[in-house]
Design a protein that fits this description.
Blueprint: H1 27-31, H2 68-96, H3 99-111, H4 114-123, H5 127-142, H6 166-172, E1 180-183, E2 187-190, H7 191-208, H8 215-232, H9 234-241, H10 247-266, E3 285-287, E4 290-292
Antiparallel strand pairs: 1-2, 3-4
Helix pairs in contact: 2-8, 3-8, 4-5, 6-7, 6-10
């Protein structure tokens, strides 16, 4: 899904030197023959060969993009809706709702996912992380007031929040991504992630009953989750979109890069801490060997002060 920029190298313009007359040219230059290029060294078989030219190609994308045309249209529609409706509402939510309330909503929504995270760690034979996840859910659901307070990350527990799901389990066992898709309003995904996410949602009623599937409960939680997620990713979306030549390709590459990093971490190919996929990245966004930064706003033009009035030009009052 990497957008390759083809650079055509044009040879520099060759400018012929001015002719040198025999009167001004040194004698040594007249006597010496023009330099000749040395022939290439003979190869093992006695024949002369030029040096091999090695051409390297970028690594293949973790997911093909055969539906790029339709995906780009869905991306444009989603981006327009986000710019006109979702983004402004999310910013109002972020600026006007007090931080403790927003943090409580964030923690509550993530605490609901912990049982699914636990199940998938068990399926991946990561019993230690499964036990920590179960401990997080138990602590936050009781001492943390139904998950509104993330007590598990505090001392003396220090149990980090981890992301996991059935899409991760499929990737852990080598199931490929399948084609990349950008669904209107929903956003970027792949065939594997779409299937895994559907299993996650079907698991929720089995764990918590049908309470969270009722429209009067599911709709407010879905809206709060969307606003919370959009507000968290404001800086990320700005870096991926503003001032960029291909925001669609940036969004696609960023999604697949994070998903692959999460799978690699589960399979032991990447060390260090791994933040959940649904949480905003920490630090600068590195994409295809470059750091994305949002385009700087143009500097405001300072107002020009009015020129002082010449006393001699003032009208005389009579």
């Amino acid at each position: 899904m990497t957008t390759a920029a083809v650079l055509s190298a044009t040879p520099p313009l060759q400018v012929a030197p001015e002719p040198v007359t025999p009167a001004t040219q040194p004698a040594a230059d007249q006597a010496s023959p023009p330099p000749t290029e040395a022939p290439p060294a003979p190869g093992p078989g006695g024949d002369s060969r030029q040096a091999d030219i090695i051409v390297t190609a970028p690594s293949p994308s973790p997911a093909p993009d055969p539906f790029r045309g339709a995906n780009a249209q869905a991306f444009a529609i989603t981006d327009a809706v986000d710019s006109a409706i979702v983004g402004p509402i999310a910013m109002v939510y972020k600026k006007n709702v007090p931080s403790p309330i927003r943090s409580g909503i964030h923690n509550f929504l993530y605490n609901l996912r912990e049982p699914v995270v636990f199940i998938n760690f068990v399926l991946q034979h990561k019993i230690g992380k499964a036990a920590e996840t179960l401990g997080r859910f138990a602590l936050n659901s009781t001492v943390g007031a139904l998950g509104l307070i993330d007590m598990a990350k505090r001392k003396p527990f220090k149990l980090p929040r981890r992301g996991n799901g059935f899409a991760d389990t499929l990737g852990f066992y080598g199931i490929p991504n399948g084609p990349f898709m950008f669904l209107p309003i929903v956003g970027p995904t792949t065939v594997r992630d779409l299937l895994g996410g559907a299993i996650d949602r079907l698991t929720m009623p089995l764990l918590f009953g049908r309470t969270f599937t009722r429209p009067e409960v599911a709709l407010p939680l879905g809206i709060l989750g969307a606003l919370d997620h959009r507000a968290d990713f404001e800086e990320t979306l700005t870096a991926l979109h503003e001032g960029q030549a291909d925001p669609y390709a940036n969004t696609r590459d960023f999604y697949l890069q994070r998903r692959q990093a999460e799978i690699d971490h589960l399979r032991g190919r990447k060390t260090g801490a791994s933040s959940p996929m649904s949480e905003k990245p920490v630090g600068p966004i590195r994409l295809n060997g470059r750091v994305l930064t949002p385009a700087a706003d143009p500097a405001p033009i300072p107002p020009v002060p009015p020129a002082p009035l010449d006393p001699a030009a003032r009208p005389q009052l009579r």
